[in-house]
Amino acid sequence: MGMVIVAGHLLVDPAERAAYLEGCREVVEQARRTDGCLDFAITADLVDPSRINVYERWESQDAVEAFRGDGVSDEQGSMIRGARVAEYGAVEERVLS
């Protein structure tokens, strides 16, 4: 498989969203410095105050797995009320702009 895209969203209590995102800052910085990472973002949704959007683009499945490790911390995991995140294999890229 070629490029891997990880996309979806997490749901947290709206009152905890800012703290959750701040807790992700180091992970985002680390991911973006990791070999094989093409893009990595964890962001607040503009419409739903409980939603956090997840987007990652990696050169390969091996790169994803080398970075992923144990996933979110226990503290962050306890803040998540729901999630829908999936990995997608991409075989070609067409640049639109």
Give helix and strand order, one letter per element, not per position: EHEEHHE
Strand fraction equals 35-45%
Number of helices: 3
Distance separating the two termini: 25 Å
pLDDT below 50 for ≥5 consecutive residues: which ranges? Answer: none
Q: Please state the structural category.
A: alpha+beta
Largest sheet: 4 strands, antiparallel
Shape: globular
The overall pLDDT average reads: 91
Which sequence of strands runs across the widest sheet?
2-3-1-4
Secondary structure: number of strands:
4
Characterization of this structure:
This protein is an alpha+beta fold. The protein is 32% helix and 38% strand. The protein has three helices and four strands. The protein has a four-stranded antiparallel beta sheet. A hairpin with a 6-residue loop joins strand 2 and strand 3. The longest helix is centred in the N-terminal third of the chain and has 17 residues, at 17-33. It is globular and about 40 Å long. The chain starts with a strand and ends in a 7-residue tail after the last strand. The mean pLDDT is 91.
